[in-house]
Specification:
Distance between the termini: 64 Å
Structural class: mainly alpha
Order of helices and strands: HHHHHHH
Number of strands: 0
Helix content: over 70%
Number of helices: 7
Shape: globular
Largest sheet: none
Oligomer: single chain
């Protein structure tokens, strides 16, 4: 009998509430085995998801859409893992590049401080609006797939997870190379994102390469417009706070 809901048990999990069957008074050995199993399962699913995110664009989205989800972490969790790294790297890059560097006057220094503070504070919050909008952009350019919005949203989460991971990995390298090499790396990053997007669209939604390229360009262009508007709004927040 399930200790949680009282239903009859027919396996390792309760068919009614889903609770795993565990001893009510476990031994130390059982506790150690349970902890080891939980850690191995979480780490294994995360590492497997990260590996496929980098090596097989669109594969995780297709697996999720087709119901094969137990072996991977959720799209939202994967996004959150890499968003933490991205926002930290983005803040450091903004400071290094002097995007909000103070000038000569106290007023300009205050404006620079407000701009950097607004960037650090509002960018993570704005992304929680932009990512769902990215799902709408994907939905607009993949109407022939006839899928409901959540699947496009999950695809957008996987795209962002890769974008964030790539930026977080490359940003520190650009600190130790020359300006010319750094510029080349930035261009290379954009090309990687485009190629990744094309493969991801083809894997997750099907269709030919040209169709996938068109979807990628359309989504990227419309989404970058939304990102630009969000950045202007952040800068406007800094100006009004002065």
């Amino acid at each position: 009998m399930c200790a949680n809901c009282g239903a009859a048990l027919t396996g390792a999990f309760c068919a009614r509430c889903g609770q795993k069957v565990k001893p009510l008074d476990p031994t130390l050995r059982e506790l150690a085995g349970d902890v080891a199993g939980e850690l191995t399962d979480i780490d294994g699913r995360l590492l497997r998801s990260v590996r496929y995110l980098f090596t097989r664009p669109g594969f995780l989205s297709r697996e999720h859409a087709e119901g094969r989800r137990a072996s991977y972490v959720s799209p939202l969790r994967l996004y959150l893992v890499f968003s933490v790294l991205f926002f930290a790297a983005a803040s450091l890059v903004a400071r290094r590049e002097g995007m909000f560097a103070p000038e000569n006057t106290p007023g300009e220094a205050a404006l620079a401080f407000n701009a950097q503070d607004a960037f650090d504070t509002w960018l993570p919050r704005v992304m929680f609006v932009l990512v769902p909008l990215c799902g709408l952009c994907v939905m607009a350019f993949t109407r022939s797939a006839r899928r409901h919005y959540p699947e496009h949203f999950h695809f957008g989460l996987h795209l962002h997870a890769f974008w964030f991971a790539l930026f977080a990995l490359m940003a520190p390298l650009e600190w130790v190379v020359s300006k010319r090499v750094s510029d080349a790396m930035s261009i290379g990053r954009v090309l990687v994102l485009v190629v990744y997007g094309v493969i991801a669209f083809r894997t997750a939604y099907g269709g030919g390469w040209w169709r996938s390229l068109g979807r990628t360009v359309g989504v990227f262009a419309s989404y970058m417009l939304l990102v630009g508007l969000a950045l202007f709004a952040i800068i406007g927040t800094a100006l009004t706070a002065q």
